[in-house]
Input
Amino acid sequence: MTKSIQKILSLIPHSIRDPFFILESNGKILFTNKQGYNLLNVTKPQGSIIEYFESDSKNKFNELLDKVVEKNDKLSLEHFEFNLSSGKKVNAQIILNTFEISGKLNILCTIIPKNYDITFTGKSKIKISYTDLQSNIKSENLLEIINKVKVLYPITFIGKEIIHKLADGLENIFWIADDRGKFLLVNEYFAETIGLKPFQMEGKPADEFIPGFLKELNLAIDKFIKDTMNCVVTTGVHFRENENLKNKEIVQLPLYDEENNLQAVIGFSQQSENNIEQITDENLFSVLYKIIDYFPKPVAFITSQGIITHSSKEFCKLLNRKPEGLNGLNFADILTESLVESINRLLKSTDNSRILPLNGFFEIDKEGEPEYTVYLWNAVANRHMAFRKEPVLRMAA
Output
């Protein structure tokens, strides 16, 4: 398994309810979740996924893989019947998506057996996975609110007031977003934790309230939910300056219609069962380092002593240097004096972030049209009760 695949797996939650596989283009299994183990009836799948099909089904599934590789796009079959070598006969929806890393095509494969009793439908014709409700919701109050959303959807003005009253009683964040990612409803707790009122967030894209370096990951999660209708559970801080989420998990639950089209996503936080381990600066920054090369803009991490510990490919390209020629250097040796002074001022201040305009020579540009915008923010970690600031430098042309 390549390092790139391992990076993706470190970010993808293992909470997908259906059998899920990451495959090479020839069908070789790179990863599967527990549901995938159970489907194939093995403790650790090896080799090609085709090997686990009976002879009459091998060609059918192989044709699907060839087709999705040829299209290099999503392929979905509502009904696909196949036999496994374990003796199982399966009727399932098959969803195949392709993604490319370092010029190599890979496949995301989700198998949704039709014999799962996973949904219930009310008069509103909006469906929610029964399995997701049972396995991911730990609060009776949350369950009541979600069932109310289902009954009242699409949400009218009066319906919104009813849901708001219930959601505002939660001591966890709660929101409803439409299929385009815009907030339809945000509870008071959510808005207050980032210093806003609900009306200041409602009607706006969720991306506006997510740290810039997590936007690409958030888009990938949104696409995954839309393509598979799977619930996604992630842990950590997902919204700007929201320390209240540090030891919480974020659950995103899809609402979909009879044709399996996404209608809305209900999101909420709850206490994570996996937060027994204390978060230290070492494992916090190891996570950031893993995703830095997925950032869409040049990014570098600088220690409070001024040492560049990690820099993205785009950052190296911008400064025309290789990573090994940057990491370990003092930022004062490669950045302009005015930018160095600004970073030092941020380190000495109590500010969490700062935005600077730069000209083409990376000098502070207080007049005219800047060619670059530099975003500086402090990633703060707690280690043995001693706080330290690690400035993060991001440049946008």
Summary: The radius of gyration is 24 Å. Residues 115-124, 275-284, 380-391 have pLDDT under 50 and may be disordered.
